[in-house]
Amino acid sequence: MPGTTRIAVRTILPLLLVLVSLSVGMSSARRVQGRLLARALEARHDRWHGSSVGPARRGTTEQNSVTNVLDHGARAGDGSFDNAVPFQAALNAALAAGGGIVWVPAGQFTFHSSITVPVGVSLEGTYRAPPAHNVGEGGLPPTHGSVLLVVGGRGEASGTPFATLKQDATLRGVVLYYPDQDPKAAPTPYPFTLSLSVNSAVIDVEGVNPYQFISAVGAARHYIARVYGQPSLIGIYVDDVTDIGRMIDIHFNPWYSQHPEYMRLQLTRGRAFVLGRSDWQFCTRLFAFAYSVGFHFIETAAGATNGILEESGADMAYNASVLIEQVDVWGLQIAACEFTSFASPQWANVSVTSIELVVAPTNSGTVTVSNTAFWGPSYSIASVAGSGMVSFSGCTFTQWDVHHKGLPAVTIAGATAVSITDSLFLQNNCISGTCFSQIDRTRESSGAIMVANNIFTGAIHNLVALCSKRSSDSCLVINNVVRL
Ligand SMILES: *[C@@H]1O[C@H](CO)[C@@H](O)[C@H](O)[C@H]1NC(C)=O
Ligand SMILES: *[C@@H]1O[C@H](CO)[C@@H](O)[C@H](O)[C@H]1NC(C)=O
């Protein structure tokens, strides 16, 4: 009975919250409370509104649920015409009909202003897999399928996004292209292309050359899947997500322009994935090539992330493949990933310290890294600071110290505990007969250290110093073997 359930929820919820706060402390309780409350409210929303849906309207699915933008006056191939007006009319008609699909046929549709995809409406184009257009530097818009040309918002980095997706709204099967961007010059700022809300989704979409691509702020259970493109400043920005956010099969690669003038911003300031607060963010098969930072975990006013990053990679990150300024105490689990971090003079001459995984002094959360390949040239592989716990297990470490400065693969510069186990160090750390530690620690570090069951190449250089050169909580270097 609806009434009974509601009362039960009301009675049980505070009880749960008391138990939760007693067992995990106040700040954790606040977050769990947020999640439970959100779910309870949704359950109530469904009960109130779910049953009011009447019987299905008669006729075929197409007649009743699909609206064609052409029937509302949309015009392909006319750059001076603003398709925002007819598209919005079609989207509003779909909403008025009780939700449905707004169909975008093949063609190039120009937009001088923004659109909103209403609650329960899907804006759909022709693609059923993520397209990737090798535009080169010709800068001509893609010609096949549903192509949306965005010209509005030029010069306004914090302006209104091109498309705002409301709750349960979807954008699917389209290519987004900024025709006024110049592939041979520094990118011009534009607002975010897409802004998501609770439960909205972006599927089979290409952002050929957005300045800032997708914003998922306050977008609980966002679903971003099968998305390709070359965003220059920010790929996807996630924050204030209080229930599981999902990103899957996303690939950012310089298909639009590899011109040094265009690439410089991306390589020195561009970040493919930026994550503020998300209460379990699931990230699967994400890839970013040629950004300053591949995956950036930050603290915002809303908090930080606890999440899973798996089967993902960031290659040729100029600053860091993964930069963790803050993750939550429940942590970030990095599994089965691959990272490289270096600055190539072929792309942009920048003096930068390229480290594949950086746990910054600000971090107090937990980071576990397993079965991950740190490969490709880098200055150093990992730098671990802060006051959290960090572990590496089953990883491969190779090709670090490209500048031959005698740097370790891993520098422990803080953290209350660091564990490196069951990993393979593929290179000897020697330069013309002088050898350097594969793992080192700075004077700032005083946490517990465990280095065990690893295989080193050539020799184990001075790992004993890890435990002897500074007193720490406890320190164990044991069961490591060498292959010559
Ligand atoms: C990358 O490193 C450079 C040089 O240290 C710095 O100026 C720049 O702000 C860094 N970029 C990011 C996104 O952290
Ligand atoms: C970087 O500098 C080198 C040496 O001066 C030059 O050959 C190369 O073209 C430069 N790269 C870029 C992207 O400007």
From TrEMBL:
Q: Which residues form the Rhamnogalacturonase A/B/Epimerase-like pectate lyase domain?
A: 67-131
Quick check: keyword Signal in the entry? yes
From which domain of life does this come?
Eukaryota
* Signal peptide feature range: 1-29
This protein's UniProt keywords = Signal
**Keyword Transmembrane assigned:** no
| Name of the protein in question | Rhamnogalacturonase A/B/Epimerase-like pectate lyase domain-containing protein
Q: What is the lineage of its organism?
A: Eukaryota, Apusozoa, Apusomonadida, Apusomonadidae, Thecamonas
